[in-house]
């Protein structure tokens, strides 16, 4: 979708001190061979701060940069891929209460690791058709996997899960970057990859049922009617999805592929990053945010924001540069956005936590 008049006025991040991969191996949490294959150097682990509180930290940082009054905001969208706290409780309203304190809508969307990109898509519509005087929307995302019910190191062969919080202020008034296009595309015939043999009724609920993504993927590959080539075919199908979506989004933005200076992407481990995203896009790793994300791991909903913040704060992108945001989630679905940097950062690593 082509977007006009929507800017990123503020960006915030919260990343805890990373745990070196070699330390996780030494403690027996991570298999040495899997650790080497991942290409990761460390993973962000937060033992004390909840996901919604990390989101609040990031939100306050983004709000301070954006310089909007609290009553400028139309809504808060808070997202997480994992459980945020007690059942029958609203994490989005927790973030709203502590970050803005306004009587506006607060909600989340169930869109896995694409939730922040999809929130940008929603922000464009909400701000264009919202109440007069509402010029901004706060988007936050956070996850904390520090629970015995989740094995961040071994749950998926595609990634190691990181704890973090991120925030963006979308604004009609201006900002450090301009959103030019955003969209997604899915291959719903592959939804079973993340379902495996799990039943739909009764639905699984925390704390009695961990994710076990790798197990479900294997169950899907071994289903009675499976073809031995299905896993390879699913990878190829997703690669085609990513390539087609990127081509469409760039065309909607009116930006040529050669104009893309950097790419901020999902925090897959090294081989998966190449297979699922970089190779289908025909992009070298030098244009990616791998050097940064390999020190953090897969921050689910926050990967693209962490990458963008790092690129901008360290001066690796500046005024006039175009950045491609790209990601993936279960479904299978790919998401993409094109932004243009409007101004340089005031200082290297400004405001980072």
Q: What structural category characterises the helix and strand content?
A: alpha/beta
Q: How many strands, what sense, and barrel or not for the largest sheet?
A: 9 strands, mixed
- Low-pLDDT parts are 348-353
The CATH class of the largest domain is: Alpha Beta
Find the CATH superfamily of the largest domain.
Thiolase/Chalcone synthase
Number of continuous helical runs: 10
Work out the strand percent.
15-25%
Mean pLDDT: 93
The CATH architecture of the largest domain is 3-Layer(aba) Sandwich
Query: How are helices and strands ordered from N to C?
Result: EEHHEHEHEHEEEHHEHHHEE
Q: What is the radius of gyration computed over CA atoms, rounded to a whole number of angstroms?
A: 19 Å
Strand order, biggest sheet?
5-4-6-7-1-8-11-10-9
- Between the first and last Cα atoms, what is the distance in angstroms? 33 Å
Which fold name fills CATH's third level, the topology of the largest domain? Peroxisomal Thiolase, Chain A, domain 1
Net shape: globular
| Total strands | 11
- Structural domain tally: 2
